[in-house]
Amino acid sequence: MASASQHRIQKRALKVAHFVGLFLAMSLICIPGLWVVLNSFRPTIEIMAKPPVWIPQDLNLDHYRAMFGGAGEGGVPVLTYFRNSLIVSITSTVIALLVGMAGGYAFARYRFKGKGVMFVALMASRAVPGVALSLPLFIIFGRTGIIDTHFGLILVYVAMNVPFTIWLIDGFFRQVPKELAEAAEIDGCTRWQAFWKVEFPVARSGIASAGIFAFLTSWNEYALASQLTRSTNSKTMPVGLLDFTSQFTLNWGGMCALAVLMIIPALVLTFLVQKHLIAGLTFGGVKG
Amino acid sequence: MAQVQLKNVVKKYGALGVVHAINLDIAEGEFVVLVGPSGCGKSTTLRMVAGLEDITGGEILIGGRVVNDLPPRDRNLAMVFQNYALYPHMTVRENLGFSLKIAKKSQTEIDRAVDEAANILSLTPLLDRKPGALSGGQRQRVAMGRAIVRQPEVFLFDEPLSNLDAKLRTQMRVEIKKLHQRVGSTVIYVTHDQIEAMTLADRIVIMRDGHIIQVGTPLDVFENPVNTFVATFIGSPPMNLLDGTVQGGQVVLTDGTTIPLPPGLPVADGRRVQFGIRADNIMPEGHALPPTPHMAYVDMPVTLTEPLGTETLLYAILAGTEVQAKMLNPRPVSPGETMRFGVALNKCHIFDADTGISLRG
Q1: Between B50, B84, B133, which is nearest A186 by CB?
Q2: Contact (CB<8Å) B83/A202
């Protein structure tokens, strides 16, 4: 009896420790985000207070109002930045996914000369830090006149994302048994139909996760965008954050408000695509 | 229904030949089983018929039409894969109706065909499930259902039962045979399991290293194997082979034991041979081997027994070689006991020791 109750206590203690550990880890991840959201609703005086005010006393929408207000009242062209970000991120994601699907499928299904080298080269291109390319890109883009355009940024983001989407999608197509496409072909499909009606839906979850990754990379990218954009023509939201800095002051509240607007689409997208991220769709089709 | 002809069909991967100029005529409605050890080219041959592999040389005809360059969808055949290859994102109903949907058949037509196939294979209660929620045997039936819904001219089976447990395999074997009797289509069935081959086939095609070694009815290949490969591959347990030399109408085994040559099989003196005998034709004296005029007797020590109920399998040693014999109406036998065995000579085989080819001709 004694050992049984001891065992029960031990089990409960372990469970508590588990929750405490999880809580600490989640706090570490969530508190900065929460702080950004809170600050966007707090007056600057409270944000800057020393010692810090932990519990918000006065929540209002002043920073948002100012941000959307006129240029003289601390307003920034949020909607233009938002539109730029959307155009650049969505277009580059769609292109990176299309190229990634074609490339990933080829790597997963076909044998061709130089396949291994090509794959390693693609991965190696990821090893170069993006910022290291900013100066050469700046010069080339300046010469070709695509600096400060959507097109230029889209080009850069596609190049950044394609190796990763190929790698990720290759892995997912590898998990789709090739007999599925063969069965579809025997069932009357062309090669193309077999891909779209069978292989694509089965690998959909993988393609969705590659898409989220590519979108978030483009959406959040700052370093290159800050070099390659000049004006409201092409500035994306992360670059727009810089509008809140001036020679002597930093408008933390405004910055946080814009950051919140940046986070919302990313969160919405993740929620929408989440159900596709559930792995294991390929199980059951074949007996392994 | 259609006949299938293979004329000098060759398959090479680069310089590596996998199938070497095989010829095969399969009649309308015939159930042909390709059997052989792994790597013998049987699956490749099937996949060439299906159109999933290019043909390096020769011709394949289905219903008298050369199909070498036709894609799989234009060959009017159905295939059941070893791993079933069910579409995991579709329900059983959608899996079954997929080919008809691709063929742009009307929904009522699809429903009717799917319901009929589901009925035949008792899949009706499972129609709205996805493959992931099915057991192995059920998936196997869905794979078969998907094939029959199309009403193809030719059915192709690629080791369809090898992922099932032994009991289910026997059950599905019967279902496949029933299915063939019902629909009467031409069937090409690939397996490495000789029992499946024997039980299902109208004709068995035994392959090795990309060559067809023997084609014949199950009984034909069982009773008249052309060489030692077929003799040991077909039949369970495999045929016993004993090395020896022919001397004066007798085979002298390596330890000096002599067994007369089978009747009607003259072999020149001095020729090195292998004496082949199945377990069914070597039995302890007095245990149900019908006495024939062509009977020889040998004494062998028994090393191991495997009681199977109606019969017991005896492992004995003859001339240094392990021999499997059968005992009908078994009595307990203790290992080490030497018994007298009768050999039915008219059922025995003589193979050339070097080439392995049967000397029965």
Answers
A1: B50
A2: no
How far from B267 is each of B231, B242, B264, B296, B346, CA to CA, in Å? 19, 16, 10, 18, 15
Q: Which helix (H) or strand (E) holds A236?
A: none
Question: Beta-carbon neighbour count of residue B201 at 10 Å?
Answer: 23
Residues of A in contact with B84 (CB under 8 A): 285-287
Residues 6+ apart with CB under 8 A from A158: A92, A95, A96, A99
C-alpha torsion angle, residues B111, B115, B118, B120 (rounded to 10): -140
CA gap B227, B160 in Å, rounded: 28
B87 closest CB neighbour out of A180, A185, A288: A180
Instruction: Read off the pLDDT of each residue in B120-144 and give the average, rounded to a whole number.
Output: 89
Residue of A188, A285, A288 with shortest CB distance to B87: A285
Query: What is the DSSP-derived secondary structure letter of residue A195?
Result: I
- How much is the pLDDT for B121? 85
**In terms of pLDDT, which residue wins out, B105 or A70?**
B105
* DSSP element (H, E) containing A153: helix A150-175
Spatial CA neighbour of B346 closest among B281, B251, B266, B279: B281
User: Do B352 and B227 touch, CB atoms closer than 8 A?
Assistant: no
Selected residue of B75, B92, B102, B130 to mutate for chain A interface (largest A Cβ count, 10 A) = B102
> What's B152's DSSP letter?
-
**Is the pLDDT at A284 greater than 80, yes or no?**
no
The CA-based dihedral angle spanning residues B220, B222, B225, B230, taken in that order and rounded to the nearest 10 degrees: 130
A137-180 residue pLDDT tens? 999 999 999 989 999 999 999 999 999 899 989 988 998 888 99
Q: What pLDDT shows up at residue A73?
A: 66
Task: Report the alpha-carbon distance of residue A281 to residue A98 in Å, rounded.
Answer: 21
**Residue labelled with tokens 């929540």:** A59
* B86-125 pLDDT per residue, tens: 999 899 999 999 999 999 999 999 999 999 989 888 889 9
Task: Indicate whether A280 pLDDT > 50.
Answer: no
* pLDDT bracket for residue A2 (50, 70, 90): low
Confidence band (pLDDT; 50, 70, 90) for B285?
A: confident
For residue A276, what pLDDT is reported? 65
Partner-chain contact B131 A186, CB within 8 Å: no
Q: Do A286 and B78 touch (CB under 8 A)?
A: no
Q: Do B98 and A184 touch (CB under 8 A)?
A: yes
ipTM: 0.83
Which residue in A190, A202, A286 is closest to B84 by CB distance? A286
Q: Is A182 within 8 Å of B77 when comparing Cβ atoms?
A: no
